[in-house]
From TrEMBL:
<dbReference type="GO" id="GO:0051287">
    <property type="term" value="F:NAD binding"/>
</dbReference>
<feature type="binding site">
    <location>
        <position position="223"/>
    </location>
    <ligand>
        <name>Mg(2+)</name>
    </ligand>
</feature>
<feature type="site" description="Important for catalysis">
    <location>
        <position position="141"/>
    </location>
</feature>
<feature type="site" description="Important for catalysis">
    <location>
        <position position="191"/>
    </location>
</feature>
<keyword id="KW-0100">Branched-chain amino acid biosynthesis</keyword>
<dbReference type="InterPro" id="IPR004429">
    <property type="entry name" value="Isopropylmalate_DH"/>
</dbReference>
<protein>
    <recommendedName>
        <fullName>3-isopropylmalate dehydrogenase</fullName>
        <ecNumber>1.1.1.85</ecNumber>
    </recommendedName>
</protein>
<feature type="domain" description="Isopropylmalate dehydrogenase-like">
    <location>
        <begin position="4"/>
        <end position="358"/>
    </location>
</feature>
<feature type="binding site">
    <location>
        <position position="251"/>
    </location>
    <ligand>
        <name>Mg(2+)</name>
    </ligand>
</feature>
<dbReference type="InterPro" id="IPR019818">
    <property type="entry name" value="IsoCit/isopropylmalate_DH_CS"/>
</dbReference>
<keyword id="KW-0560">Oxidoreductase</keyword>
<keyword id="KW-0432">Leucine biosynthesis</keyword>
<dbReference type="InterPro" id="IPR024084">
    <property type="entry name" value="IsoPropMal-DH-like_dom"/>
</dbReference>
<feature type="binding site">
    <location>
        <position position="223"/>
    </location>
    <ligand>
        <name>substrate</name>
    </ligand>
</feature>
<comment type="function">
    <text>Catalyzes the oxidation of 3-carboxy-2-hydroxy-4-methylpentanoate (3-isopropylmalate) to 3-carboxy-4-methyl-2-oxopentanoate. The product decarboxylates to 4-methyl-2 oxopentanoate.</text>
</comment>
<keyword id="KW-0464">Manganese</keyword>
<keyword id="KW-0963">Cytoplasm</keyword>
Amino acid sequence: MNYRITVLPGDGVGPEVMAEGMKVLEAVAKKFGHTFKLEYELIGAVAIDKTDFALPEETLKMCKKSDAVMLAAVGDPRYDDPKLPVHPEDGLLALRKGLGLFANIRPVKVFDELVNASTLKAEVLKGTDFIFVRELTGGVYFAKPKKEWLTTKGRKATDSMTYSEQEIERIVRVGFELARSRKKRLVSVDKANVLKSSRLWRQVAIEVSKDYPDVALSHVLVDACAMQLIRTPTAFDVIVTENLFGDILTDESAQLAGSMGMLPSASLAGIPQSGKPTFGLFEPIHGSAPSIAGKDIANPIATILTVAMMLRYSLALEKEAASVEKAVEVVLKQGYRTDDIMADGNTRVGTRQMGDLIAAEV
């Protein structure tokens, strides 16, 4: 089969980890007889430097023509000043909106070999394996009014948290579909004791649950969820929540796996169903990490596992996805580690060597 992939290496360590992800994808192509046409485009700081735009029009056009999009990272300290007219992260937000990517899927799995990499007790973490479903194009990040102004008493600023029942319904359905394919448990996270938008969220979740009688739905307030993720992470299977809450909770969950360099993500434009392709943008959850760029020490595993998610969700290639995930597991069992997950008794490897090892195992 032939597939067209838009590749966005981005900033910082992005090009380094993306190179290893594409190395593994090439190994998949050779093993299973596929052809992946890779088309590279600009996004983030590197795009601003060359075009003055964080998301050039040509990049968005190319993405829309593709079967899937792979993104590494955006961000550059040169653009940290909030007074600047454009920032690298603007490109990512515009890309999500431009491609209609409303569902962010973040699996959180603690490999047995890395159970001691986290600061939490091993007995708490062992067996952790759940999926976060985060609404991505609504809520406080996008709703209006959104402004800052000067009053006679000083400066003020406002952001609006707004959700329609249609936005809530489609993201909750993603959660139910994923839960149905796993342990049939869905937790919906909100702040219904305080927020009107959360009360609507809970009402819609209950209404949608009638279409999924085989899935057990429960509701957890966001602050309680934050505590439970640390105390009993193995209690979760699939978690669905709105944009801001999901942004915070998924980064918290990243620490369960020992490093943000271990976790992939997918942003989908449709409701995933087994065996059917769903267009999406696939990216590791970590940032551009400019302080370690070019040093061959960044962990490429999150990007490599992101390749597996692309194979599974956008290309409907389940065997190929599983082969990548298995290769990662085998290499970890062999004791190879990048700096961020290094421990006594392991073999330290760099970004490129880790990619080589996993590609060879595929």
